[in-house]
């Protein structure tokens, strides 16, 4: 019985490693992408999967209309949106913390002069 368990142990360890290094991170990225697509709204500046930059002017459940230039509007599937580039949404908590630390350092440096 113990030999059978010892024989299965490497397979179980490989599965656990695959789960934590491949499956779980992919599920997390997919969840973040779904949340980003559901949070789209008119006026957002976005980048498509093909690299096209534009602003959302119309939004339906399946499609997004982007204003690329003054006279050009293009319709894309919602899933073709790769990233939202609004300044308030692209800053991460770590980036904000670094900015605050730099401001504090500059403030301390100016006060010591």
UniProtKB/TrEMBL annotation:
<feature type="transmembrane region" description="Helical">
    <location>
        <begin position="6"/>
        <end position="23"/>
    </location>
</feature>
<dbReference type="Pfam" id="PF02699">
    <property type="entry name" value="YajC"/>
</dbReference>
<feature type="compositionally biased region" description="Basic and acidic residues">
    <location>
        <begin position="95"/>
        <end position="113"/>
    </location>
</feature>
<protein>
    <submittedName>
        <fullName>Preprotein translocase subunit YajC</fullName>
    </submittedName>
</protein>
<keyword id="KW-0653">Protein transport</keyword>
<dbReference type="GO" id="GO:0015031">
    <property type="term" value="P:protein transport"/>
</dbReference>
<comment type="similarity">
    <text>Belongs to the YajC family.</text>
</comment>
<dbReference type="InterPro" id="IPR003849">
    <property type="entry name" value="Preprotein_translocase_YajC"/>
</dbReference>
<keyword id="KW-0813">Transport</keyword>
<dbReference type="GO" id="GO:0005886">
    <property type="term" value="C:plasma membrane"/>
</dbReference>
<keyword id="KW-0811">Translocation</keyword>
<keyword id="KW-1133">Transmembrane helix</keyword>
<keyword id="KW-0472">Membrane</keyword>
<keyword id="KW-1003">Cell membrane</keyword>
<feature type="region of interest" description="Disordered">
    <location>
        <begin position="85"/>
        <end position="113"/>
    </location>
</feature>
<keyword id="KW-0812">Transmembrane</keyword>
């Amino acid at each position: 019985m113990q030999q059978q368990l010892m024989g299965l142990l490497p397979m179980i360890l490989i599965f656990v490693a695959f789960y934590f290094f491949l499956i779980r991170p992919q599920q997390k990225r997919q969840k973040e992408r779904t949340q980003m697509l559901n949070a789209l709204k008119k006026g957002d500046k976005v980048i498509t999967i093909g690299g096209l930059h534009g602003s959302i002017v119309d939004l339906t459940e399946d499609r997004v209309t982007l204003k690329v230039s003054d006279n050009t509007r293009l319709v894309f599937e919602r899933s073709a949106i790769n990233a939202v580039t609004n300044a308030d949404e692209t800053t991460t908590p770590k980036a904000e913390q670094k900015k605050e630390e730099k401001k504090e350092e500059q403030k301390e440096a100016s006060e010591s002069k």
